[in-house]
């Protein structure tokens, strides 16, 4: 049996692609901002260290939270 779709499936695919691209771009911006902030510290922790990971996640999350409001 064939289903009768109200929307063209290609339009759905394009919308999904657009949303996924927007999410990935936002993630890239949050990553860049977190790294920029960490690199601005005069005594920045070494990248990959537990301290760096915690601080990176904090700044990444702060950026994402600001974007969602």
Number of helices: 2
Give unreliable regions as ranges: none
The domain tally reads 1
Helix share, percent: over 70%
Radius of gyration: 19 Å
Q: Would you tell me the overall average pLDDT?
A: 93
Terminal CA distance: 44 Å
Structure notes:
This protein is rod-shaped. It has one domain. The chain is 74% helix and 0% strand. The chain contains two helices and no strands. By secondary structure, the chain is an all-alpha fold. The model has no long low-confidence stretch (mean pLDDT 93).
Feature tags:
69 residues, mainly alpha, 2 helices, 0% strand
Summarize the structure.
This protein is mostly helical and 69 residues long.
List the helices and strands and how they pair.
Elements: H1 9-40, H2 50-68
């Amino acid at each position: 049996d064939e289903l009768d779709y109200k929307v063209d499936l290609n339009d759905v695919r394009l919308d999904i692609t657009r949303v996924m691209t927007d999410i990935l771009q936002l993630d890239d911006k949050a990553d860049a901002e977190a790294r920029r902030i960490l690199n601005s510290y005069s005594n920045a922790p070494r990248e990959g260290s537990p301290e760096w990971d915690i601080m990176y996640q904090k700044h990444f999350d702060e950026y994402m939270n600001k974007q969602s409001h």
